[in-house]
Amino acid sequence: MTGRPFLELGVAAALDPGIRRAVEFFRGAGHETTDSGDGVSKPPGPDVLPFPHVVILSTAAELMAEAHAVLRRCAVAPMMGVPLGARVEATYDPADQTAIIMVSWPPGATAD
Asked: Which of 13, 4, 11, 16 is nearest to 105 (CA)?
């Protein structure tokens, strides 16, 4: 994480309303989120995913362990206003050494 409080960065206000709780939930658990969307608040476009999602930045060394931790957190997430049915995917790109975890929900699911 950046070390600076999430709300101090002014990021929370810019989040899609249907995904805000999920982003706050994962950031509160120590995961560095880098992208999110609720699948309905932005107009359709080539860079807009049509389903709720949160992308978490990881490292190559920690990717598997962090993906498992995210999956375990999804089991308790409904108590925090995050819906059931999350899918967790982990991806590593050796070309630029980017390691990300994507948590997504079926279209129409909301995190609020």
From this structure: 16
CB atoms within 10 A of CB 62: 12
Query: Tokens standing for 72?
Result: 């375990």
DSSP string, 15-72: S-TTTHHHHHHHHHTT-EEEEEE-SSSSPP-TT--SS-EEEEEE-TTTHHHHHHHHHH
CA–CA distance from 11 to each of 35, 41, 86, 95 (Å)? Answer: 11, 16, 23, 29
The tens digit of pLDDT for each residue in 52-75 reads: 999 999 999 999 999 999 999 998
Q: How many residues does the chain have?
A: 112
Domain assignments of the chain as residue spans, ordered by start: 7-104
